Structures are given as C-alpha cells and as structure tokens.
Model the fold of this input.
Amino acid sequence: MAGGTLFEPPVHVALRTTDVDQARAFCRSMFYGPLRMEPVGDRTRFAFDGDVVVLGSITVGEISYASDVHLWIADLETAYHVLAPLTGSLKSRHGGTTVVADPTLAAVYRPVGDIDLDWPGGCRLLSVKVDRHALERELDAGSDSRIVSPLLLGASFDLADGPGRTWAALVRLLHTEMRDDKGLAAQPRVAARWRDMLISGLALIVEHPYGAEEPAGMLGPRRPRTVKRALDAMHAEPAKQYTAAELASIAGVGVRVLQEAFRQHVGLSPLSYLRRIRLDGVHAELSRGDPWRASVSEVAFRWGFTHLGRFAGAYRERFGVLPSHTLRERR
Done:
C-alpha cells in the first residue's frame, strides 16, 4: 500500500481573494515555500480562487487566477507534482523540457529543477502534490529493480484517454467529495485508501524507467523474490516491530542469506531499509504538520520508533536537522 497503514485526518482549506500577497502566501503554505507569483498585465482583473484538500502525503488543489500570471518555483525537493488543466492551457518549462498542458495533457515535475510557468487567466487546473518518499516507496515496493532517486519521470502524460483519464477522474472526484465533511471520503480510513490508490495510479501511468517495456539498459539488477517478499511486508506495515529473523522467515530464507541479498539488491540491510521507510514517513508527516498541535514524539511512535534519543540521531543523520526543526519550519 502506497501510504502504509497510518492514517491522518483529511484537511480542507479554501481561499478567494483579489489580494496578490494573500494568494501568494496561500500557495506557499499549501504547496511550496520557494514560490514566486506575479500578475502579468492588468492587476485589477486578478482574482485568485484556490480550493485545496490534503490527504497526508497527497495534496490536491483546484486553482485559478482570472488574469495572466507568471510563476517560478525553485527545486521542489520534497515532492513530485502534476498540473492537470480543466480549462484553458499553460506553458511549462522544467528540466530542459517545455510542455503546453491542457485538458488532454498533464505536466509532470520532479523534485529537482526550477519550474517556470506562463499561466493564462483562462486556465483553471488541478494541482496535485505527491510526497517524494511516498511515490518512491510505491515504485520501489512494486519494482523488481532497485530504483534511483529522484525518479526519472516523463514530462507529461495523456489525460484524454486510457489510465491517465481514469486517474484524473479519481482526483476530481476526491476533490469534490472532500469538500463535504459528512461524506465517506472525509473518514480517515477511507481517505487513506483513496490516497494510496491515487499514488499507486500515478506510479503506473507516469513514464519512468521501471516498467517492463523499458530498455534493459535502463534497469538495475533484478531483485530475487526473497527480497521482494520482505520489501512487500515492510511497506505494508512500516510501524511493525520486525526482527531480522521474522523478515527472513517471511522471505523463506535464513537471516544471513537475506542480509546478503539486501546488500546486493537494495544497498542496505533489511532493518536499515525499514528504518529508512520510517524516517521518511516521519519527515513527510512533520513537513506538513501543524507545529502548534503536532508532537514529534507522537509521530515517531506512530511510525514505530520506541527510543526517541536514537530516533533523533538517525533523523539528523538522514535529513541534516533534528525532527523538531522540521516541525518548527512550518510556523
């Protein structure tokens, strides 16, 4: 499952304003801090409309500006992103590629590389932010080959037909349902399953070098089934207190055999890989958490960390800061 077995309550936030600074602050809060947005031409026509729902590792917003704007965003770092126009079109430049996105074609963005957008007033779109580690875990769990981060995603995908159309319809339906706090999608467990389905669907439809039809030279060494069994178990229940012996039993081999297979095909020992899944999950949750309500210790325990001192040291080693610093950055 893309998001594991942890549940977070859905969040719905909306803003309508003619104030440019207010609109800019809203977009930075809901999506990315390093974002610049400037109206082009007549500012009196500017009218921002943003309606955003957050489901843990996925954020979906219906966004429009009413007048032409220019946006520039630095490296996303923590997320992959999709822009799917509902009306009109926009010109997107990212990673040396220019895409004209419209209701038939979505634009896709990786965590690295500036994004430059010419966004006409007639363009209303769905803006979908997916936590970097969530999408990478989904591909890693389902792949027979070791993935490389950040993923080498294609710059666009088809919205007019096939799986892309289905995925976009699911995103639209989720966004609509989430605005009704009495609907089924407002229930955390249902919402979590919906979140996982959207992440899994995106992993299937966006172009990347981990599909069966890609040239052999694009893939890393294929993973044996023993490794895949252990990976599947860890991704399904990341907070479970597995031992090396339990994972080896799931894989159907001895502990030393599994450790050597992980060293060759994953690059980490089984328990080190499990710790990385947990650390990434904590980081993602703290990065979007409310600093006035969220607790580092509660999040850490929820992801399976029982010794806070060792957890803090491991977190700092992976992300360069203490977990409390990640949470404070949200203030």
